[in-house]
Design goal:
Elements: E1 7-12, H1 14-22, H2 28-32, H3 38-44, E2 51-58, H4 79-83, E3 86-87, H5 97-106, H6 109-115, H7 124-131, H8 141-144, H9 146-162, H10 170-179, H11 181-189, H12 196-207, H13 215-231, H14 239-253, E4 272-276, H15 281-292, E5 302-306, H16 313-323, E6 329-333, H17 338-343, E7 359-361, E8 367-369, H18 374-390, E9 405-408, E10 427-430, H19 432-435, H20 440-450, H21 469-478, H22 480-495, H23 497-500, E11 506-508, H24 527-531
Parallel strand pairs: 4-5, 4-9, 5-6, 9-10
Antiparallel strand pairs: 1-2, 2-3, 7-8, 7-11
Length: about 550
């Protein structure tokens, strides 16, 4: 077809359609061939007159393509281009099996193979419906037929946009249908949505009040609207009244745990606010801000301190001071003594694996860093275990959808690169200090104004390899027993066989890969460079 040429839109003759329908299985190899010539196939079987005009026209070449590395339904996003390729196409023609069969065979065959490859269609009848939908299946023509699906999904999106009073455009409506085909399927099935304004309000709700609704919730929402239409003349309602009905229905569904894709969309549940308390500068100030109600912060329901049992003594003293100033509960949990486990070359589960990110010199002389699992094993896991216990979760079962924990983490605004989403859907990480634009300097000033005689510690294990030289030096001068303990552990990494058995090469606590007792601690070193890799945001705060 010439790009500037308008050509007639044809449909298959009944004879041609019936032949293809009856012989689909025998000609299956033809359908698997992207360059198949169906005109030649029909001619070979004495069906020379295989098409007839419809009165509509094709305005430009039809050349859709399935996006690479994308879910198959994303191809539907090209439907508006396909829809705009016709002049005179009507819903009646777009529902005619002979029209769609002609488009599927002579314009969309390569696209159809890419969209629905035969390797993914073990059901031969399902594959046949993509190319040939017969008269008995007209009600499903918009579900399975290649061209029927593309035209109807674009038609619905266009009509919804035209009747949305500017709430969205056709492209936005199509993206909603394409992202979740179930929305499109159900929208087509319910008679109440034959009223385009009602349909437009449902699509608008999917962008707003019903964002995150799942298949079951959307079906129930449409059933409710269908009942409403049966009880009153819904077509005669003003847009405002209709919108209120749709909003109300959507809101009721979004309050049901079984009607949402993800618990974060569920409405009407009280989130349990939990502060991850590391007893360092940031989490201390966040805890005190919440106690004070500073800048509108509410108090958390409780705070949890995950104790590695190897914090410097000043952190434990500071935690005791802090607990006396908080009216909400501070829970202490632990997965065991990380120091003792390091010396035994095991993790909390007893496996032969050392969790800390020690600095290594491999047997071949190359340098590496040991895998860090200490945050997960000694911070995250014990906190989550306590939360599951307190919330009465059934062991081994997923958390109920109507339970949502808001985990407060004390990362400051100048450390925003450490922000990460929770790994668990029932926990939603929140970073109040980032929301308040509080940097570390702001935090120290806030604390100094209220407690000028106190020093804020940094919560980290005595032998944490992420220590900067400044921190090692402070530890040596102010907590000499703790520093000497770190020196002993550092020596043990290279000299105790059962520790060496859990590592490859020589391990050091200092990043210089020099024995800790011999490191020159007067050289400046940037703490941020190494701590930024502590991706969970639960250490050093």
């Amino acid at each position: 077809m010439n790009p500037n040429e308008r050509c007639p839109l044809y449909k298959l003759t009944r004879t041609a359609f019936d032949y293809l329908l009856q012989n689909f299985k025998e000609n299956i190899d033809h359908y698997k061939n992207p360059y198949a010539n169906f005109a030649e196939l029909l001619t070979q079987h004495n069906i020379g007159d295989y098409r007839e005009r419809t009165g509509a026209y094709i305005l430009r070449p039809i050349e859709p393509d399935v996006p690479a590395n994308a879910p198959a339904h994303m191809a539907d996003k090209q439907a508006l281009d396909f829809y705009g390729s016709f002049e005179g196409m009507t819903p009646r023609l777009a529902s005619h099996p002979y029209v769609l069969a002609y488009l599927n065979h002579f314009h969309l065959h390569q696209y159809g193979i890419a969209r629905w490859p035969s390797t993914k269609n073990t059901n031969l009848d399902s594959m046949r419906k993509h190319w040939l939908t017969n008269n008995n299946e007209e009600k499903d023509i918009w579900k399975s037929s290649i061209s029927g699906r593309m035209w109807w999904i674009a038609h619905m999106a266009t009509k919804a946009a035209e009747h949305s009073a500017g709430a969205f455009d056709a492209k936005q409506a199509l993206e909603t249908f394409a992202e979740t085909p179930e929305y499109y399927h159900r929208t087509m099935e319910y008679a109440v949505l034959k009223n385009y304004t009602t349909m437009a309000e449902c699509v608008r709700a999917l962008h707003n009040e019903a964002e995150g609704i799942n298949r079951a919730g959307y079906i129930d929402m449409l059933k409710e609207l269908n009942r409403e239409a049966g009880a009153r003349l819904i077509d005669s309602l003003s847009r405002d009244d209709l919108r209120n009905i749709v909003r109300g229905s959507a809101d009721r569904q979004m309050r049901k745990p079984g009607s949402v894709k993800n618990r974060k969309y569920l409405r009407g549940i009280k989130k349990i606010k939990v502060l991850s308390l590391g007893a360092g500068a940031q989490s201390t100030v966040l805890a005190l801000m919440a106690e004070e109600g500073w800048n509108g912060l509410e108090k958390p329901d409780f705070a949890i301190f995950a104790d590695t049992q190897w914090e410097p003594p000043n952190v434990y003293r500071h935690l005791e001071w802090l607990e006396k100033r908080l009216s909400y509960e501070v829970i202490r949990v632990t997965a065991g003594n990380i120091r003792e486990n390091i010396l035994n070359g095991i993790n909390p589960d007893g496996d032969r694996f050392m969790d800390i990110p020690a600095f290594l010199i491999n047997p071949n002389g190359s340098k590496a860093v040991a895998m860090r699992q200490c945050t997960t094993h000694y911070k995250i896991n014990p906190i989550h275990k306590e939360l599951r216990r307190r919330l009465n979760f059934t062991p081994g079962r997923r958390a109920p959808k109507d339970v949502q924990v808001e985990m407060w983490i004390g990362i400051s605004a100048d450390e925003s690169e450490r922000i990460k989403p929770s790994r668990d859907e029932w926990i939603d990480n929140r970073y109040p200090l980032v929301d308040l634009q509080m940097t570390r300097a702001n935090i120290y000033n806030w604390f100094k104004e209220r407690h000028p005689d106190r020093r804020l510690p940094r919560s980290a294990c005595v032998g944490c390899p992420y220590h900067s030289d400044m921190e090692w030096k402070w530890l040596k001068e102010n907590e000499p027993d703790s520093f000497n303990d770190a020196v002993r552990v550092d020596w043990s990494l290279r000299n105790i066989p059962k520790i060496q058995g859990s590592l490859r090469g020589e391990a050091y606590l200092h990043r210089s890969r020099i024995e800790l007792s011999k490191v020159n601690l007067n050289e400046a070193q940037n703490y941020d460079d190494v701590m930024a890799s502590e991706c969970e945001g639960l250490c050093g705060v």
